[in-house]
Amino acid sequence: MRVTDYASRVLAANPGPMTLDGTNTWILKAPGAEQAVVVDPGPMLEEHLRAVLDAAGKVAVVLLTHKHPDHSEGAAWFANHASCGVRAVDPAFRMPTDRAHGLAEGDVITADGLRIEVLPTPGHTLDSVCFWLPQDGSLLTGDTVLGRGTSVVAHPDGALGPYLDSLERLRAFANSPAGVTRLLPGHGPVIDDPAAALTHYLDHRRERLDQVRAAIAEGHATPQAIVEHVYADVDKSLWPAAERSVRAQLDYLNG
After folding, report:
1. Contact 96/112 with Cβ under 8 angstroms?
2. CA atoms of 113 and 54, how far apart (whole Å)
3. What is the distance between the alpha carbons of residues 141 and 129, in angstroms, rounded to a whole number?
4. Beta strands in 81-186 (DSSP E)
5. Which residues pair with 183 in a beta bridge?
6. How many beta carbons lie within 10 A of that of residue 229, not counting itself?
7. Is 161 helix (H, G, I), strand (E, B) or coil?
8. Helix (H) or strand (E) holding 49
9. With contact defined as beta carbons under 8 Å apart, do 109 and 36 qualify?
10. Do 89 and 124 meet the contact criterion of CB atoms below 8 Å apart?
11. Hey, is 196 helix, strand or coil?
12. What is the pTM of this model?
């Protein structure tokens, strides 16, 4: 489904409490271009991956926002069938595995009229990055910012300090003259008010930290006890993820 002049979305059939409607695989292609860039091929669901191949046509490269399987599991299969490479922060997902297929601050990917700038945003995972399309006003956020609800920062791979720094960086970028029109998330709908969404994310994290501090002061000493107190209104099926998030919050508060 075409979302902007430069970005189309293919939704993976992996809905769930953590993936919302499923993983958004993004196909980036300049108007009139032959080559595309594919961001987050998604899980190893062959029907989905073949749908992305059909929609993308010739693929210059695959980019990964982060290592989680619902974004990365199908990357190697897809790249082999598309005859292209994979660029990722984590060397384990690069194809080939050399440094040239990494992703770092200041990197710019160009392909057939596309310009994609790399913004490292560690926190959700330590290898998380966002991708900025200046021609389109679109920022691809992976799981750093979701289209609905809030993202999990799961200890130990997730870290709250870097995550808060990343959100502050993205909010400053959204408020800059760069012209950020929308966020294209890894799950959920497009966000048309980036600055407001990022402010909400920061406010939500600070509120949760205050709740965790209060729970500790009231004698709730373990992550499980804090989850039962702070996340009492959250479906219990999400408590394991909430506990990992609480561990990240405790690590941040004890740091």
Report:
1. no
2. 20
3. 7
4. 85-87, 108-111, 114-120, 129-133, 138-142, 182-185
5. 139, 191
6. 17
7. helix
8. helix 46-56
9. no
10. no
11. helix
12. 0.96
Give pLDDT tens digits for 186-240.
999 999 999 999 999 999 999 999 999 999 999 998 999 999 999 988 888 889 9
Of how many residues is the chain composed?
255
Contact 23, 32 (CB under 8 A): no
Tokens 């373990």 identify what position? 222
State CA 99 to chain mean position distance: 22
Rg (the chain; Cα; Å): 18
Q: Indicate the SS3 state at residue 174.
A: helix
Which of 193, 172, 67, 73 has the alpha carbon at shortest distance from 127?
A: 67
What are the structure tokens assigned to 53, written together? Answer: 């191949």
160 vs 249: CA distance, rounded Å: 6
- Residue 115's closest CA among 28, 54, 205, 178? 28
Q: Is 165 helix (H, G, I), strand (E, B) or coil?
A: helix
The DSSP secondary structure of 198-254, one letter per residue, reads: HHHHHHHHHHHHHHHHHHHHTT--SHHHHHHHHTTTS-GGGHHHHHHHHHHHHHHHH
